[in-house]
Amino acid sequence: MNIKYIGNDSSKSEKGKIHVKKGNYTGCGARIDDNQEDWVETNEAVTCEKNGCKDK
Ligand SMILES: [Zn+2]
Q: Quick one: how far is CA 49 from the chain centroid?
């Protein structure tokens, strides 16, 4: 399962970017569980190009 960022904090992630989900973090290290309402699980393909998401 991947996860899409729908919040507005551009320091955390670009809005609409899809990351690999690893527990409470994205594959690239952004924290999910401090603002869970800003993230939504998705089956769409990963669009994040940072290490940990891009190469899984
Ligand atoms: Zn990522």
A: 11
